[in-house]
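Practice problem: Tetratricopeptide repeat protein
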Amino acid sequence: MNIYINESLLHYRNKKLESALSSINYAVDKFPNWADAQYLKALIHAEKDEYEKAGDAFQRAMEISPKSERLLENILCTMDRGNPQVAIEAGERLRKMDVADDHLLFHLASAYEANGDYDNAIETADDVLEISREGFSANASKMVQARSLFELEERAASTEICKELIDNHPNTTHEIFAHFIAGRNLYRSHPEKAIDHLDEYLNNQPELDDSNRSLRSLRLKNQSNSSSEKPAFARLYKGIAKLELGNTSEGLDDLRHAGEQNTDIAEYLQKEDFSEYVDSDQVIFNHK
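Answer key — structure tokens:
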């Protein structure tokens, strides 16, 4: 049986995803109760951003091997953002098996957040912090808490976590979190600070043109960790902060620049009401 896995795995490692999928589909059809084949099929679909199909294959693998720690760990860590329902099922199984460490619990918290279950996301992130207060899992869990608190309208608590991360870890987390704290929590109450954060961030970023990228949604990509998408959002927030300060001309320039970098931002600028800053008939961004 391994010949089918090996052939598919070779294609997968060489990024020949269609060939990898063809090989593994043959293996799955021939041996439907082979968990490793279902697992590899899921990984290939995930690599293709086909998270629903990946979730189906992972679900089947869990049915075949419901107590495989390796399988459950890989499902949780692979699918926490792409198919959070499947990841949550895997994560809760690991928690019941009492094998979930701080890293796995972070991915479970991330899955709860992606699924919109913010209370469970915060609670699970607290479980991570009981195990470890420092390191990647701890800091990433604090960010899950910050985003979840923001969605629950607890803006002050969210901002405080972001400030702590930036103050305590300036060399490792500033680039990741600066545009978040400035854009989502500070630009209305402290626009000067927001602009300072965003200037520092943008000054260390290359100019990127995302105008041809198709993004799933503005809100989803606002939470993305993709370095190629952050500058456009940082410039969007900077523009709004400048409008808050009454610097209309520079603010509009930043908004237009953000719209040129990112098509979803352009659509957002067309729909958003900016009448409190500019004349109601003034065009913010003319998306072609």
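Discussion: Confidence is low (pLDDT under 50) at residues 207-228. Students who identified this feature from the tokens alone can consider the problem solved.
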